[in-house]
């Protein structure tokens, strides 16, 4: 099931994940990509269109910083608008997961009953 | 594929975008190779993970065209977006061609028709009163004004319909992203 609920869920929270990472500390695209690749199994190249989009939406801004090896690296940091977006998205996410969890817990008990009934 | 080959194909595929946009994009992917090399990953492995550079370029270009259309609703941005959409070369988009092209012709024809109705109305308004227009001077003037008003109103409706059609095409095109897909859809 390549386009199952899991993929849809991951797609939906990618932006939130990036905002959460940058909320903690500024970072460069490769670092963000490898963290996301481990956590939500995202193709590493997809980070660049996403960062570009977030930048043109005014959620992040860039600056150059010397790296130990090679040319200076492009770092991303949250703008005030980005921080606001993170707060609202996080609140939305928490409310959403809480209600889904509630629904699952509610459904779990009767489901077991039905199964027991079936076997009897 | 090695790093240089990947970047070359990417750059080639991005032709048509503004030069500074191309430089930005290529620099991002070049930096990606650098950072990956610092972790000891091979160029081939990174290129493999990034996907087909030509496909990547086509999708980035399409997205740039779509965003421009969303920023500026103009005939030229609509045209760029549609051309980029066809450039994606997805089979079901090409299957749509026999529908898209006649529709495009009809829309252009309707715009022309509205233009001529407007001009004809203006002609009747100005010339009518001085010629023996059936019904008299007032009929000619109101008739002419009425035609012009109708042409303007229908053009406005046509404009709304055209914007709707292009928006639908953009929505349809975005369903075809493979390489950049999750990133573009994530913000809804």
Describe the overall structure.
The complex is a heterodimer of chains A (120) and B (188). Chain A has a single domain (5-119), classed as Orthogonal Bundle (Arc Repressor Mutant, subunit A). Chain A has helices at 5-24, 29-40, 47-56, 80-119, and strands spanning 27-28, 60-65, 73-78. By secondary structure, chain A is mainly α. Chain A has a three-stranded antiparallel sheet with strand order 1-3-2. Chain A is elongated, with a radius of gyration of 20 Å. In chain A, 68% of the residues lie in helices and 12% in strands. Chain A is built from four helices and three strands; from the N terminus they run αβααββα. In chain A, helix 1 (5-24) packs antiparallel against helix 4. By secondary structure, chain B is an all-alpha fold. Chain B folds into two domains: 1-51, no CATH class; 72-185. Chain B has helices at residues 3-13, 19-38, 43-50, 53-71, 75-87, 91-127, 137-174, 181-185. In chain B, helix 1 (3-13) packs parallel to helix 4, helix 5 (75-87) runs parallel beside helix 7 (137-174) and helix 6 (91-127) runs antiparallel to helix 7 (137-174). The longest helix of chain B is centred in the last third of the chain and has 38 residues, at 137-174. Chain B is rod-shaped and about 90 Å long. The mean pLDDT of chain B is 84. The chains are: A mainly alpha (120), B mainly alpha (188). Chain B: The chain crosses the membrane at residues 77-101, 107-133, 145-172. Chain B: It holds the Pfam family HAAS. Chain B: It comes from Novosphingobium marinum. Chain B: This is Putative membrane protein. Chain B: Keywords: Membrane, Transmembrane, Transmembrane helix.
């Amino acid at each position: 099931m390549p386009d199952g609920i899991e993929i849809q869920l991951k797609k939906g929270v990618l932006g939130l994940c990036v905002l959460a990472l940058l909320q903690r500390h500024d970072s460069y695209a490769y670092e963000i990509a490898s963290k996301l690749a481990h956590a939500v199994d995202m193709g590493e190249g997809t980070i660049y269109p996403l960062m570009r989009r977030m930048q043109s939406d005014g959620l992040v801004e860039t600056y150059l910083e010397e790296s130990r090896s090679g040319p200076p690296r492009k770092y991303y940091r949250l703008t005030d608008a980005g921080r606001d977006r993170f707060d609202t998205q996080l609140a939305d996410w928490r409310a959403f997961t809480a209600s889904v969890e509630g629904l699952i817990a509610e459904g779990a008990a009767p489901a077991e009953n039905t199964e027991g009934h079936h076997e009897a | 594929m090695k790093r240089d080959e990947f970047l070359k194909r990417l750059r080639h595929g991005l032709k048509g975008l503004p030069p500074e946009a191309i430089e930005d994009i290529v620099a991002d992917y070049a930096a990606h190779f650098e950072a990956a090399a610092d972790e000891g990953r091979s160029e081939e492995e990174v290129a493999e993970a990034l996907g087909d550079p030509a496909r990547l370029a086509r999708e980035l270009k399409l997205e740039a065209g779509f965003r421009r259309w969303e920023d500026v609703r103009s005939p030229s941005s609509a045209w760029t977006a549609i051309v980029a959409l066809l450039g994606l070369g997805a089979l079901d988009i090409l299957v749509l061609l026999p529908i898209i092209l006649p529709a495009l012709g009809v829309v252009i024809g309707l715009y022309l028709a509205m233009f001529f109705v407007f001009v004809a109305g203006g002609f009747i308004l100005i010339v009518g009163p001085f010629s023996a227009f059936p019904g008299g001077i007032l009929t000619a003037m109101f008739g002419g004004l009425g035609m012009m008003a109708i042409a303007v109103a229908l053009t406005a409706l046509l404009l709304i319909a055209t914007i709707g059609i292009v928006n639908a095409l953009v929505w349809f095109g975005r369903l075809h992203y493979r390489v950049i897909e999750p990133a573009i859809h994530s913000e809804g």
